[in-house]
Protein: Malic enzyme
Amino acid sequence: MLRAAVIKRAFMPRFARHHASSSSEFADLTTNLTYVNDEEEAYTRASTNMKKFLPPLRTGKKGIDLIHDPLFNKGTGYKHAERDRLGLRGLVPPRRLNMKLQLEKLYSLYQEEENPLRKNIFLSELQNRNETLFFRLLIDYIEEMAPVVYTPTVGLVCQKFGSIFRRSRGMYFSAEDKSQFGSMVYNWPCDDVQVIVVTDGSRILGLGDLGVNGMGIPIGKLALYTAAGGIDPRKVLPVVLDLGTNNETYLKDPYYLGMQHRRLEGEAFYSVVDEFMRAVRHRWPKALVQFEDFSSDHAADVLHAYRLKQLCFNDDIQGTGATVLAGALSACLRVNTPLKEQRILVLGAGSAGLGVSTTLLQGMLQEGAKLDDARKRFYVFDQFGLLGESRTELTSGQQFFARPDLTDKTSLLDVIKQ
Structure:
């Protein structure tokens, strides 16, 4: 009876399926069942309450080209009819394994990896050959795998990026290719890119200048955007702007994958960034550009240059700032004291620290505080201590929060005591 109900539902017209899903006759039988292969095999799934009827995905690829494309490859999951239609007979093992069995096998292999780096490499190799299985595995075990795909493991992945590099993912825009960016963007196959995460590798997490090895950050972040946010993996683009590196190790490393010269500064830096942004605006005018891990001396200036011209944001400045502001406002409600009356100590004067400070200051202004009064409530520290006005070589953002009334480089403990 169960088998008959599943088969009957599989051949019902689309409009009839919609009504049947709410009827008592089929509700109990179909809520947790999915018709999966030619042998009328059914298996239980956790997320079957939402039924979507999607049009078939069209691709001009067949045979070996199809199974070598990670976006369309289904591994051992092709049905017999698909193998005939797509020219796959003899190119894949004869027995079909449904997604449930493939996921069980992959998760077992994943657990056998001895450390987070090896687990990350395992997942990267899976993504390079079968993105459907990669994202299904990541979604099903998101709490366990998110720290492997992104922080904290991604820091080590970036440090070893050159040695574990197997297959190119995303795009690299080098200063050596300047004047060619407008044509280079057409080398990317997707005409409808929706999200671009771009870094220049100058300040990767807390690791400093990693150059093109920072590509691990856009790749990992976009994987989470797809798994957690549902963004189409075909419509994301990780990017590195290779403007050189000041990392002495990479300048001498014969296997470093980026350009081995000192970082461009000043007008040379901004001209490369500007050409990249213009190329993106021309090819994908509706794409969201996320600036990621730019050094503090460039991050704010780059954001301000394009925030009113293109759809863009800086995650270190705005994303982190918005998150901290939300937490601060919630805490202020608990203590029944408005944000504008709080004194804020910020440990860190990089892009994230200044972004948090700026966002909190804007929150105070929203509550009616005056700019000078709000600014006096901030005490920003870097690795040397409090930022004072007497300090030289501060960025414009750091100068804004530098204290005129306290000694430069005062320790955190001394400021708290005062």
